[in-house]
Amino acid sequence: xxxxxxxxxxxxxxxxxxxxxxxxxxxxxxxxxxxxxxxxxxxxxxxxxxxxxxxxxxxxxxxxxxxxxxxxxxxxxxxxxxxxxxxxxxxxxxxxxxxxxxxxxxxxxxxxxxxxxxxxxxxxxxxxxxxxxxxxxxxxxxxxxxxxxxxxxxxxxxxxxxxxxxxxxxxxxxxxxxxxxxxxxxxxxxxxxxxxxxxxxxxxxxxxxxxxxxxxxxxxxxxxxxxxxxxxxxxxxxxxxxxxxxxxxxxxxxxxxxxxxxxxxxxxxxxxxxxxxxxxxxxxxxxxxxxxxxxxxxxxxxxxxxxxxxxxxxxxxxxxxxxxxxxxxxxxxxxxxxxxxxxxxxxxxxxxxxxxxxxxxxxxxxxxxx
Length: 370
Description:
This protein is α+β, with helices and mostly antiparallel strands. The chain has helices at 2-7, 20-23, 34-39, 110-124, 137-140, 157-185, 203-206, 218-223, 291-304, 315-318, 335-363, and strands at residues 14-19, 24-27, 41-47, 56-60, 69-73, 75-76, 82-85, 90-91, 95-100, 126-127, 133-134, 144-149, 197-202, 207-211, 228-231, 240-244, 249-257, 265-275, 279-284, 322-327. Strand 17 (249-257) and strand 18 form a beta hairpin.
């Protein structure tokens, strides 16, 4: 559907470039401080150069503007970020406004400018990429903005509406995709295990629990660089914190996080590694236990306990947690059945990963403008 939106053309679209100073009046910023807001609190928004909460800096008891404009962040990591402003409001620090000149009021949609010109604005900001950048009024005046021109050579507001509709559709789609990805990530599947018999065993009975090495700080890593991985409570990049020139473990095991996003389980194949003080190692006590089965079973049970930054997964908290283990007719751990169940969960994980990858492709869709 997105591809069809991009391909559908009633005629060949031409664009003409206009300087910002040709089509906009520039509105300067005001030095409104937090202290001033506290003394003059009200209901009218004050917008600043921040991007959190759509740039809302605070609420004032008076307003300066009551017509639609575009604001841009003049300073900071997000310099050049655009917002459309409506209603009664004020402009604060590190942001300026663009008001359409009278000759262009009925010819240009502000939503079109916000959607199509933001990357142009950001690319004109001065400073380090990813650092603090600036885009003052002096730079903004000469920026060129492409506007669609119809067959008569006039600014085409109808084409602007079509382009804005594409952007809005893709924004809505991306919002839904982000929700789907989150749902898939935390989706648990109940596998029909038929007539398999389970017995609950505590974490303490199933594992030897080893604490991490608290000396493995970032400073220590910087001074002892090497080839052996250090895992931490980081749940991204497979939990990798860094690399050093020695190792504490050379085993197959489960690793869990105790700080930050606490209670997350990783399966670690046999290799040489370390863990820092924000993690623990779980080593199975029986050869008739399967690590992959334990990985899925422990993670599902930990999810039910809602471990997080405030509810840390300490050793004392996890020891009594019970994990269901398949047992055979003799009352012993059923290793074969554990492996069968683990294989089913692996297939489900592969499906979830494939779906997430396809959703990721959709999230990267863009409106194509020549």
